Amino acid sequence: MRDNEILLDTGTNEFEIIEFYIDEVSRSGDGRDYFGINVAKVLEVVEAPVGMESAEGAPHPSFLGTMSLRDIILPVIDLSVWLGIERKPSDFELIVVTEINNVVTGFLVTGVTQIHRIGWGDLKTPNKFIADMDSNCITGTVELDDRFVLMIDLERILGELDPEMAERSDGNSYVAPEKYTAVLVDDSVSVRALLNKNFDAANFDVHLFSNGLEAWEGLQEMNRQAREQGGSIANVVDILVSDIEMPQMDGYTLTKNVKEHADLSALPVILFSSLITKGLYHKGEAVKADDQITKPEFNELTGRAIALIEKYRAKHRG
To answer: N or C: which terminus of the chain carries fewer CB neighbours within 10 A?
Structure first.
């Protein structure tokens, strides 16, 4: 998948999704539900082995056991079961193989349509009905031609199947030597809560934003107020920590905007995302992010944030 990935200029506020579908059996007749995930998380799409069924004693009914893919043994999740959809059986089904937080997992679906390039501004917040679904793993909706595609939060699914994956610790305790201020940006409510908790414990004042556009507008306002008082952004914010995948404006575009801004360019930026892999690290470098950390290393994140702030302060003192 990645070898054929559509090339995008980093910081254009665009991304690619792979669209797939689940054929559903319902009282009103058979239907088809469309879903999508960021193509950067997809390793490949393969034909599903025949006869995969829910494993006895599995941690969740959606767990179908494991399958062999060359030199990898990967768990397989029936996405329809997780979403509460009665899938119509098919002789030919597919498994979307993903790599998220360095974990390879397969998700069983009915079929795959194609890859689409869209703007983050086209990703709409899910309506109340979708947001209240029991599965609660829909991050947004995208309108494509005559249909709506629901974006799936696979990290949430994997985190609920394996709670240890939701937050990892390097075993150290990090506390800033003085009160620092961080702007933290993530579209996930649960991730923002964890970020807030960890940075508060590390002696930070925190400003939380739910997407890149909100953060960009907030930073510009903070900068305006600082300048009116005769100071600079450095007087009110010490560091920016941002997710990458977010509606309205992604983390790459936010970072690019900050680094190209006359007043904000000296603000240290850390990208914190499950998209940060060896193959995609260059994208963060292209927008001049100061550091990039893979979720869910929340504890390590605070330590590296403190070290980066101190490095910046020493540089400016010198």
So the answer is: C
